[in-house]
Design a protein that fits this description.
By secondary structure, the protein is of the alpha/beta class. The chain is built from 7 helices and 11 strands. It has a 5-stranded mixed beta sheet, covered by helices on one side. A 3-stranded antiparallel beta sheet has the order 5-1-6. It is elongated.
């Protein structure tokens, strides 16, 4: 069993990563002038820029990259000893916005599987790796979950009844849910789900898989694939 994805779940959700500060790049428009300066306009207003290095950086963001985030490491490569002044300018004028680190505030990890062999494997692994309180449960009655719980489930054989029951409990407690299951000879790991995030739930994901299967079997075109 390859636990690479499971490790990613723990070390990106259970542990708040630090060290690198990220900044969101806000939208802006650049106007070139005849005197080698630029006029930058965004939702906060208009500012004239005459610093050559800053102009190069802003033009890079505008035309050379499709990224939505930039790190303090990236900024240091651009501005070096002038980083502090450059960052003050970028933040003050709303060109960049400091991105707060994710903190899911996980205090407890709960694992459930109706597959006994997988249940045993996860039990041994999580006892070694889980950085928080870890609970392995054998049934779905009175799930010990709350808003500070990461619930990890592996459903094999596939049981819609069990997934429906888990979904209702996760929704009620606003817990974080990682769902995996076998389907059509593959193993699927759904997106990390939480009701308050308004992200696609397992029903949407399964509907997409089933739709794809029908397209492959009957050579049909689904609605999302139709083009004009």
């Amino acid at each position: 069993m390859n636990f690479t994805l499971l490790k990613r779940i723990f070390f990106t959700i259970c542990i708040e990563e630090g060290g690198t500060q990220m900044y969101e790049i806000n939208g802006f428009i650049i106007f070139n002038t005849e005197d080698s300066t630029i006029i930058l306009q965004n939702e906060l207003g208009i500012v004239q820029v005459d610093n050559r290095r800053m102009i190069e950086f802003l033009c890079f963001l505008d035309t050379k990259t499709s990224k939505f985030l930039v790190s303090n490491v990236d900024l240091n490569k651009w501005f070096g000893s002038e980083l502090e002044n450059a960052l003050t300018f970028l933040l003050t004028n709303g060109i960049l916005k400091k991105k707060n680190p994710l903190n899911f505030d996980i205090k407890k990890v709960v694992f459930y599987s109706n597959d006994k062999s997988m249940d045993h494997l996860f039990d041994e692994y999580l006892k070694r790796e889980a950085p928080n309180e870890f609970i392995r449960i054998e049934g779905l009655k009175n799930l010990p979950i709350d808003e500070h719980t990461l619930l990890i489930t592996f459903i094999n054989p596939l049981s819609f009844e069990q997934m429906d029951l888990i979904y209702e409990e996760v929704k009620k407690h606003d817990s974080i849910w990682s769902l995996s299951y076998p389907y059509n000879n593959d193993i699927y790991f759904n997106n990390i789900y939480r009701w308050s995030w308004h992200v696609p739930c397992y029903k949407c994901v399964l509907a997409g898989l089933q739709n794809r299967e029908r397209v492959d079997i009957f050579d049909e075109v689904s609605y999302p694939e139709m083009s004009i």
